[in-house]
Each structure stands twice: as C-alpha cells, then as structure tokens.
Specification:
Elements: E1 2-3, H1 15-35, H2 40-62, H3 66-91, H4 97-102, H5 107-110, H6 113-116, H7 126-140, E2 143-144, H8 147-169, H9 176-183, H10 185-198, H11 210-216, E3 237-243, E4 254-255, E5 258-259, H12 262-268, E6 272-278, H13 285-295, H14 317-323, E7 326-331, H15 341-348, E8 352-354, E9 364-365, E10 368-369, H16 371-388, E11 391-397, H17 424-448, E12 455-461, H18 473-483, H19 489-493, E13 494-500, E14 508-510, E15 514-515, H20 519-527, E16 547-550, E17 558-561, E18 564-567, E19 576-579, E20 584-586, H21 590-614
Helix pairs in contact: 1-2, 1-3, 1-7, 2-3, 2-8, 3-7, 8-10, 9-10, 12-17, 16-17
The chain binds (2R)-2,3-dihydroxypropyl phosphate and manganese (II) ion (MN).
Residues 244, 285-286, 462-463 line the site of manganese (II) ion.
Length: 617
C-alpha cells in the first residue's frame, strides 16, 4: 500500500491539499453569500481553521473509513451552510444554533424555500461530487493518506482555532451577525452557548478615554473649560423637566390653525433649541430616560437599566451637583416602585424624592394626578428647600401625556377637525397641548417667584408616544396630512431639547446631532462644573459631529451619525440606510462599516461602565 508520507508527491496534488482547498472554497462561498466578506486572509485565519480542525479530526479518528468520514462531514456542512444561507435570506440575520433547531418546524422558511433559492446554490454540493471521484480514485490506486499528517493538521488547526475562539470570547456580542462576521460562525455559536448557559459575557475591556470616544464621533477633544458655553449658567438653580412622550415634530407645528405647543414655542424665543436630538431609551422607557439624564451612560437595552443596578450609589449628575453645593430633588406622581425607582433614585443619590405619596392625588388623569398638580406641588416645595440649600436641582417628570393620551373634555384645548375625533393622534395632540400649558404656567411661576433670572431650565421629551400597534392606518393618514410626509423614524425618535433661563440664550436653533446621553454633559458645561467620571455624551453646544448607537428600538448595531440613520438587519428586515436630510433610503458607503464599528465601540465602553455599576456594593 502506498503512503503519501512515503512517496514524495507534489504538494498541490496531495489529497489533503485538495480536500482542504475544496473546504476553503466552500467556506469562501458561504462567507461571500452570508457576510459579503471578501478578505481571504480573514477567512483563512478566522473561519477556516475551526472547520478544518473538525475535518482533520474526523480523518484522524475515522482511519480506515476516512473517505466516508470526509464525504459525510462535507455533506452535513453543505446542508448546514445552505440552511444558514436560506435563513439569512429570509430573516436577514444569521441563525443561532437554537434557531436552526426550529428551522424545519417553522413554515416561515420551509414554505418559502422555492423563493429563497438561487441558481448557484447547487455549487455548495459540487465538492461532494468531486470528493466522491477523489475517494474512488484513491481507493482504486490504494492511496491511503497518512494519519501522521492528519494528526499534525488536527493539532495545527486546533491550535489556531483555540486562539481565535478565545479571542472571540473577549469581544462583545451586541449583534450576532456582526459578531459572526468578525469572529467566525462557530465561534459566535460557542459564545452564545456560553453566555446563555452561564448568563455572563467575557468581553474584553475596551478602555477608551474621553479623547478616544470623541475621535470615534468625528471630533477633536477640547477640554470642557475651553468651550464657549462653559459656566454661562454658573451657580444657577436648575430645573430639568422630562416630558412624557414629547416628540420633536409638535414643536412650532400648527393643527387646524392652532399651535400644538404655544408655550414651548414662545419659550424658544429666548432659548437654545436643539432640534436634532434622538431618544436613546431601551426597555426601561421613562426610567431609562431618567438614567440617561443623570449618568450619561447608555441604558442596558433589552432590560430596563433599573434591573441591572442594585441601588448602591453610582457616579451621577446628582453626586456631582451635591459636591458643588446643590440640593437635589425629583418629582414624579407615581408609585416609586414602578420601574424600581426606589432603587434608581437611591443609586443616583437624590436628596428629596417626591412620588405619589407626597404629591396629592387630585385631578387624576390616566396614571395619576394631572401635571398641573405636579407643578403646583414643585412650586410649594421650593421655598422650604431654598432655605436649606443655596442652589437647587429640581427634576420634574411629567405624566399626563402618557399613552393612551385620553384627556377629560374640559382639558382639551385644541379645536380639532372631526377626523381627529377619538383618534390616537388627536388624543396625543390634546395631551401634549395640555402639558405644554402646564410648563408655560410653571415658567410663569418661576418668574413670579423671582427665580427665573437665576435659573437654568432644561426641557426634553423622554421618548416617542406615537409608535407601534395603537397607530392605525387612519392615524397614519392624519400624520401624513399633519407632517406633509409619511411618519418616519426621524419623526418618531427626535425629541425636542430646550435650554432656557433668564438672559442666557437668544432664540438660537442648533442642529448638532445629539442623543439623551448628551444632556448631562451639556448641562454641566453650562454650569461650569467638571465631571470626574466618564460620560458617554458630550457638550452639544460645542461639538458638531456625533455618533449614536441605537438598540432595542432598532436592531443591535444600528446607529445615527451626522448624515445617516442606519437600521441594522433584523430578524425580519434587511439593513436600511436613511439620508437624514430627507429620510430617503440611500446606499451603503465606505463610511457605513466604520460608523457601525465606532458606534459599537462606544456602546461597549458604556456597557463596561454599566457593568461596574451593577456589581457595585
Ligand atoms: C410610570 C411612568 C411610565 O411611572 O413613568 O411611563 P412609561 O415608562 O410607560 O413611558
Ligand atoms: Mn415615558
């Protein structure tokens, strides 16, 4: 019997070379179709070795039946690759091992196989035919590939695979398709098995400095005290009004000849109005917006952030303000255990917490007392607080404009046409109009109490009110009429951000891209206070460029940069890029991948900080 190891054969025609080359080509085809990955080197070092390891191991273990082993392995692999490809064509994301278990039970993919196939798919099985021929030839000629070589190959590919798999375990698994593309399909499955099984990830420390983060956003870092806005509101009282469901499109908009937000519109005349700021909340809704405002750290995303903290103090806006002589209060007319605010407020460090226990249960609308009651309550608390504290930070979370936005008739101040009657949009506009009135009244109270000229006021929306199942086709056509274009993701995600205060601003509208993560650094800059922890946001007055990662309300890896809103591929839809100028779809550019990578890095840094908070004792 001839042995390859004994006979000196040209390496190119050696059966192992042919077998591995066929495997390599098949993997290139797979990566090209699924990931559009064209880097041969990346495939050679990341994706190929682990598959080649299994093949070499099978050759080594099967010994006399090695050809059966080789052909069986390749057939299973071809079927697996085709299953992954079909799944990806249908769901626009790669399947995980647990998705693949269900793939044949679900009609969704099975029933549409015909539509999912492409003429070149059969090529994934071509290697089986070639391998059968090679097996036949070698068996006939009594050529038996050496076990020594297969052992060496197993060790070689095994060693490379151990390194790539260990490296993969050090990467964050934010988006499984992205992760598999970067780290290998099998590695992505191994990490998922581990994280699902043990509930922990082993992502490595990214350790980005403030300077690094600023670079990733497209800016050169400038120390905060060199910004033109630094300290212009030094030592003022602060009123932060987080408005339930307030979206940007209502500002300066008229319906049936009436302003929807006449009070906010009037306020804009001496405000700095940021009209290009996006919500960044995750599953924690209002409470995630509170988290963003007071930490400048991204929310957890799939879980409300309050669920991953334990109530022990975390670095926050409040602790910093307290260090600078501020008393801090928060007001929300609901049960403090809703969104575990008892834990949240303890962690953030408010001095005074006012909830439905203190705020009188009067004029109840929806969840609790109407915003009028809330603002009146705030005004009543201020005198005694100001006796105890030279400067106050007051955080007011409104509630009345909460879905389903149903207002008593006597509080519906807008006269709407009949088509708005009992519609979700009609109700929404009425409730926003109501809260706008209450904010106007509160500002007037601050003026009456001679506090306004010594105050800095920040008003912003917590998240969209108009989205999801309650929005009917009729609502969509009302929105089309109101906006002059179909309601889009920009209309949904942009929240108004208004900075105001006696003599501070001249009615400027600033278009710098921002997110809720930027509210805290912007506020601190105006107060001339430096923060000693790391904030993921930056001063919106100073920096022109930005990059915001989005998750939960968009698939992982989505981002917003200065000109693009990128919706990463989801289980159902392919990736879409929108031009932010007109929200028309646009093509992927060279910059797209860079922005995905940069946004993921920023979020990874943020998650790392969050992780240290959750384990804080
Ligand atoms: C409840 C209220 C809920 O306290 O804040 O608001 P939501 O999170 O549903 O927008
Ligand atoms: Mn809310």
């Amino acid at each position: 019997m001839k042995k390859f190891s004994k006979k000196v054969k040209p390496i190119f025609t050696h059966p192992y070379t042919i077998i591995l080359t066929l495997l390599f080509i098949k993997i290139i085809g797979f990566r090209l179709v699924v990931f559009h990955n064209k880097s041969i080197l990346h495939i050679a070092f990341i994706e190929f070795p682990l598959w080649a390891f299994f093949l070499s191991l099978i050759i080594f273990l099967a010994r006399k039946r090695m050809w059966t082993g080789i052909i069986l392995f390749n057939t299973v692999l071809s079927v697996l690759f085709i299953a992954i490809i079909y799944y990806t064509r249908y769901f626009s994301t790669i399947p995980s091992y647990y998705d693949l278990q269900q793939i044949y039970q679900s009609n969704s993919v099975g029933g549409t196989v015909g539509l999912l196939s492409k003429p070149y798919d059969f090529l994934f099985f071509l290697d089986i035919a070639l391998l059968l021929l090679i097996a036949y030839y070698c068996t006939n000629k009594k050529i038996k590939p050496s076990l020594k070589i297969s052992r060496r190959l197993t060790i070689l590919f095994g060693s490379i695979s151990i390194i790539t798999t260990l490296l993969a375990f050090r990467q964050p698994l934010i988006d499984v398709s992205y992760f598999a593309k970067e780290n290998g399909y099998l590695q992505s499955q191994a990490v998922q098995v581990f994280t699902r099984g043990f509930g922990i990830a082993l992502a490595s420390d990214v350790n980005l400095s403030e300077q690094d983060v600023e670079k990733l956003k497209g800016n050169d870092f400038v120390p905060p005290d060199e910004h033109a806005s630094y300290g212009i509101a030094k030592d003022r009282h602060v009123f932060v009004i987080q408005v339930e469901s307030l979206q940007g499109f209502v500002i300066d908009k008229q319906v049936n000849g009436q302003e929807i937000t006449p009070n906010l519109n009037a306020l804009l005349k001496d405000s700095a109005y940021f009209d290009n700021v996006y919500q960044q909340i995750g599953a924690g809704n209002t409470s995630d917006a509170e988290w963003l405002m007071h930490t400048s750290i991204y929310p957890e995303g799939m879980d409300p952030t309050v669920n991953v903290i334990n109530g022990d103090p975390v670095p926050s806006l409040l602790h910093t303000l307290q260090d600078h002589g501020y008393g801090t209060a928060t007001y929300h007319a609901d049960d403090v255990t809703y969104w575990s605010r008892n834990k949240l407020y303890a962690a953030l460090g408010f001095d005074y917490v006012y909830t439905d226990v203190e705020i009188p249960a009067e004029q109840e609308i929806g969840f609790g007392p109407a915003d009028e009651v809330l603002f009146d309550f705030v005004s009543q608390q201020l005198p005694s607080q100001l006796k105890m504290n030279a400067k106050m930070y007051s955080n007011i979370i409104t509630l009345t404009s909460h879905t389903p936005f149903e207002m008593p008739e006597n509080l519906q101040n807008l006269t709407l046409s009949e088509s708005y009657d009992n519609t979700y949009i009609g109700n929404y506009l009425q409730s926003i109009r109501y809260t706008d009135e209450q904010i106007g009244n509160f500002i007037a109270t601050l003026k009456e109490k001679n506090l306004y000229d010594n105050s800095l006021i920040l008003i912003y929306g917590d998240h969209s009110g108009i989205h999801g199942a309650p929005v009917t086709e009729n609502d969509e056509s009302i929105l089309l009429e109101l906006l002059g274009h179909p309601y889009n993701l920009q209309d949904r995600f942009v929240i108004p951000v208004i900075f105001n205060g006696g003599g501070l601003f001249k009615g400027e509208t600033i278009n710098h891209l921002g997110g809720q993560v930027d509210l805290m650094p912007t506020l601190l800059n105006l107060l001339g206070i430096e923060y000693h922890g790391q904030m993921m946001g930056h001063n919106l007055f100073h920096y022109e460029n930005n990059l915001l990662g989005m998750r939960y309300h968009l698939p992982g890896s989505s981002f917003i940069n200065d000109d693009t809103l990128y919706v990463a591929p989801s289980a159902k839809f392919p990736a879409i890029l929108y031009n932010l100028e007109n929200m028309k779809e646009k093509e992927r550019s060279n910059k797209t991948q860079q922005s995905i990578d940069n946004a993921l890095q920023i979020m990874q840094q943020s998650d790392q900080i969050l992780k240290t908070y959750s384990s804080r004792k």
